[in-house]
Amino acid sequence: MIIYYSQARGNTRRIAELIHAEKGYDLCSIETAEPYTGTYQEIVDLGQEEVENHYKPVLKPLDVSLEQYDRLIVMTPTWWYTMAPAVLCFLSEHSFVGKMIVPVQTHGGWPGHTINDMKAAAPGATFQNAFAVQFDSTGGDELVTGGAEILNWIHQL
Ligand SMILES: Cc1cc2nc3c(=O)[nH]c(=O)nc-3n(C[C@H](O)[C@H](O)[C@H](O)COP(=O)(O)O)c2cc1C
What we know:
Elements: E1 2-4, H1 11-23, E2 27-29, H2 40-52, E3 71-79, E4 82-83, H3 85-93, E5 100-107, H4 114-121, E6 126-127, E7 131-134, H5 147-156
Parallel strand pairs: 1-2, 1-3, 3-5, 5-6, 5-7
Antiparallel strand pairs: 3-4
Bound molecules: flavin mononucleotide.
Flavin mononucleotide (FMN) binds next to helix 1, helix 2, strand 3 and strand 5.
């Protein structure tokens, strides 16, 4: 299953939907109980505070049961060089022992330590095919990573 969180521009959702279209894997989104509101810059600033405090927002219940999946593609936007707080919460709330995780991030040029942090947040899982997709550095929705590179990676899954 592909499980993704996407907030600012829908970038992570776009890549998740591409994997879904190419591979047909089930698709599920992580959503916070309280949506983020405010301007992009306000959310960037709030995100910094949240990341620094290892804040875990309350999430909406998932509409699927994770038990039935051995292999999860977990996708996050990069927030302050790491995964978004919603994804930290998701990984912390469930056990991934014995499961295989494909960790994926979208970012704007500063990927930081996101993939390593995702690995640390899911003890007992194995990790394969980690991937980073770069969008433009202004926080927009223009892809920088080439489409062919993304498709090659998807086809190797
Ligand atoms: C709170 C916040 C913090 C961000 N921090 C980073 C960062 O550290 N490095 C980076 O390259 N991009 C950063 N970005 C840009 C996003 O990672 C990038 O635009 C991503 O593709 C957005 O995905 P989404 O549209 O699915 O939410 C940040 C964006 C936000 C909203």
